Amino acid sequence: MDEGTNRTLTQTGAGTPMGGLLRRYWHPVAAVAELDDHPVKAVRLLGEDLALYRDRAGTYGLIDRHCAHRRADLTCGIVEGEGLRCGYHGWRYDHTGRCVEQPYEDTAEPGSRSKERILLKAYKVEALAGLTQGLLGLAPKLAGSRLVDGRFMGVQQSIAVPKGKDAGLLFLRGVVEEAKRSGLVARAIERTGAKGVSVAPLAR
Ligand code: FES
186 and 116 share a domain? Predict the structure, then answer.
């Protein structure tokens, strides 16, 4: 594999082909229990630094790790009844990334609407069978999740990919087709010893 292909396949930041593809999927972020002792956790997901938290009302948030004011680290913040308060000057954010309180500004200028212009990056996050799952892109429904005897058995993801428009998917499809043409896939199946397994053509 040449360097460029390697880079394309492994880089997952926002704006990269694989990053675009992976942002169509839900990803495990942390165990719910990890928030029991301390309800805020720093996470790095698909190259993005985020703060995962559970507020006192039980709502989960997955927002930019850095405050919009002076970029203080929000994982040093304080969870409240609703949202997460920055530990530096006290701005409070909800799970949608909106700034809902600015203690100084709200006191010095009652009725000020300056906080309405502030919005942090925020992603969907849901707790399912002991795991928090985050979605960093489009919003397919977290559907078909199955709990059997209280245990997590899997998540089926419903993903609508616009045909011919997803660069990451097209690239991956090309790589898979090439691997099939070269006999790589057939050899890999042969090695497993599986009988009667064939590879169906990729749906267009
Ligand atoms: S740095 Fe967060 S409120 Fe000032």
Answer: no
Domain count, the chain: 2
Report helix, strand and coil shares of the chain as percent, to nearest 5. 25, 30, 40
Assess contact for 98 and 114: CB atoms under 8 A. no
Nearest CA to ligand 1 atom 1: 70
**Are 21 and 166 contacting, i.e. CB atoms less than 8 angstroms apart?**
yes
Could you tell me the pTM of the whole model?
A: 0.71
User: Do 100 and 31 fall into the same domain?
Assistant: yes
Mutate to test the pocket of ligand 1, among 63, 65, 67 (most ligand atoms within 8 A of CB): 67
Block means of pLDDT (10 residues each) for the chain, 204 residues, are 88 91 91 96 97 98 97 98 97 97 95 92 92 81 43 38 53 62 60 54 49
Phi, psi of 21 (to 5 degrees): -65, -50
Angle at 37 between CA 31 and CA 40, to 5 degrees: 70
Q: Which domain holds residue 62?
A: 26-139
Mutation test of ligand 1: which of 75, 89, 93, 115 has the most ligand atoms closer than 8 Å to its C-beta?
A: 89
